[in-house]
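Our working data are protein records whose layout never changes between entries. An example says more than a description, so a record of this kind follows.
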Amino acid sequence: MKPVSAALELLAGLVLLGAIVVAPWMISPLGDTDTTRLELALATGVGIWIVSVVVALRRPRVPVTLVALVVLVLAWGTLMTLNGRARYDVATHAVVAVIRPITWLPGSVDRTASAHTLIQIGVVLIATLVLIDLARWQEMRPVALWMIAINGAAVGAVGAIGRVTHHTWFQHASRQGGTPFAAFGNHGNAAAYIDLVLPAALVLVAAGRRTRGARLIALGLCALILAGAATQASKAGLAAAVAIVLVFALVTTRRATGVSARERSALRFAALGLIVVIAGAGAILSRNRWSELPSELTIHGGRADVWHVAYDVWDEHRLTGSGPGSFKILLPGVTATREPQLFRNWIVSDYVPGQPVTIWMVADNDPLQTLAEWGVIGALFFGSILLFPVVRSLRLRTDHQFDGALRFGGVLALSVLYVHSLIDFPLQVLAIQMIAGLWAAMLIGGSKSTSDREPRAEPRNRRHARAMRRYRREMLSRDAPWSR
């Protein structure tokens, strides 16, 4: 590799990782203002990477299937956006109807909102593809894990101190309608972020550097992240953190080599004690929210009613959807006509372009909202993209302890995130999208493809059979008339 290209690749990686680091501190849930700067940072990193590829005259090492899926989902979103039937006029502050280029194809209800959503999704997906290519560097994965763990520990520590002292560190977080935690204005998204970074610290503890200092630092980071998990207000987030620690402890102690049965049992009892402490602290600090659990499990609660609205929006255009980012625009009208009971349990308000999107403008169910906005076609594309790193990593086997722990931690982190998205909206938060993209890059880019792997040695009898067939062909060719 040319020195200039290597330097540009390093710079691109630093820019992308830097954007991931500052993301949870710059944005509130779905805030429109600060996401623009993060999108520009990601686009800058992608641009530097493109220049490095052109200078090196090489082919990016990214799975072709994943590239095709990203192209398809962006093409579908672009088609729906350009075929929108209305746009927001900034001068008159009103929605103006426009003529659709393709009249028989349902388009987005608002071109402006769809374009903003499409740009954010496109930048994150393309940045993930770049990170996959950069992850072929063996040194990137440990650096990325330490970065995720340190940043997660900082978020956990700041959020825990704020929860215990009842101090709000970031004023923008207190205006989102949820329980603030660090810079997150919604407790559900804060919990999803904590659960996404927790496996990184656990991987460093279980299979990181063998030096005593590195292990102690990793344990300290893990303790700070767990403090954040115990003090955040999300019930689902607390249950997910407990499940992550339990599953990771059971699997890693079972696979650990050079550990006696007594030491393995001691580690499991230590993990069990840690789980009891986390669960007890979380139950005490959020006892008021746990008392609301029975009412939230009914089919007529606020979350259940907004799911009905999302289903009604999807029911109008099942195949194509209503366009990216359209749910917040259709929510008031559909609620008034079909689900009026939502007004009693939800703060329903009109969306004004340019203003921050609050937690009351989403469906609290990412797959269902994706169906409503992107239709069955777009949802299939998104589902394939999200499951691709998990399925690919499960198909590969490795004997290296660090690679195995990284693969298990990444699959566990993404799986918990996908389950959490069924009752919340973490996949719509840029900071969480970027961390999930980095996990996917480490799972895909860090593994060798079939062409890069060393060829497996064939059994002796198979090699012998091949040699005998080759010998017979040579002998027959010698006896053939044309060989004389």
Remarks:
- Strands lie at 86-89, 94-97.
- The CA atoms of residues 223 and 344 lie 41 Å apart.
- Residues 28-33, 449-460, 479-484 have pLDDT under 50 and may be disordered.
